[in-house]
Amino acid sequence: MDWSLIGRAAAMFVATNIDDMVMLAVFFGRAATSRADTARVIGGQYLGFVAILAASVLGAMGAGLLPKSAVPYLGLVPLLLGLWTAWKLWRDRNADDADDADPTGRPGVGVLQVAMVTFANGGDNIGVYVPAFAVAGVGAMSAYVVVFLIGVAVWCVAGRALARHRAVAPLLVRWGHIVVPVALIGIGLAILVEGGAFGL
Predict the structure, then answer these.
(1) What is the tens place of the pLDDT at every residue in 156-193?
(2) CA torsion, points 161, 112, 55, 145, in degrees to nearest 10?
(3) What's the pLDDT tens digit per position in 18-63?
C-alpha cells in the first residue's frame, strides 16, 4: 500500500473541499429532524461528487467532458437554485407554522438540489483533479477515487456533527431557511466572478 499516495490524495481532498463543509452543515441543519432528509443530503453529496469524479476521469483520459471555458458557468446552478429557494421562501412567508414544518417544503434537502450544488461548487475540484489523474495512471487514479469517496463520508459525518453542535444547531434551525438561499446565491456569484464568466 502506497501511503504517500494515500496521503497526497487525502490532502488534495481536504484542500479542494473545505468550502463544501459549510454547505453540508447548512443542508444537515435543515434536515436535522428528519432521517429521510439526512439520507437525501448524503445521497445528493455522493451523487454530486461522483459526477465531479466522472468529469475528472474523463477529462484526464482526454474526453474533455467540460471545456475549461465552461467551468465558470457552473456558478449559474447554485445561483438559480438560490434565487428559486428565495422566491419560494418569499412566496410562502405567510404560511402557518404547520406548513413551514412540512418536510417537502423545506429548501435545500432534495437529492438533486444537493447534487447540483456539490457539482457546481466542484468546478475548481475538476481543475485540480484532471491534471493529477492524468499523470497518476489507472492504478493510482483508482486509489485517488477510493480515498475521495471515503473523504465524502468523513465530510458528511463532520458536516452533520457541525450542524448538531450546541452553538451551531439552534442558529441553523432558526435561520437555516434564510442561510440556504443566501449561501447558494453567494457561491454562485463567487464561481461566476472568480471564473470570469460573462466578462466579470
Answers:
(1) 998 888 887 777 656 655 665 676 677 778 767 877 88
(2) 30
(3) 778 878 888 888 776 678 889 999 999 999 999 999 988 888 887 5
Distance in angstroms (rounded) separating the CA atoms of residues 141 and 90: 46
- For the record, the C-alpha cell of 177 comes out as 431557511
**Could you tell me the pTM of the whole model?**
0.72
Helices (H), the chain: 3-30, 35-60, 76-91, 97-100, 111-120, 123-163, 169-195
Dist. CA 141–CA 156, nearest whole Å: 23
Report whether 152 contacts 45 (CB < 8 A). Answer: yes
CA distances from 146 to 15, 83, 171, 179 (A): 17, 35, 34, 32
Residue with cell 461566476: 192
What's the Cα-to-Cα distance from 58 to each of 17, 69, 141, 195, rounded to whole Å? 20, 16, 12, 21
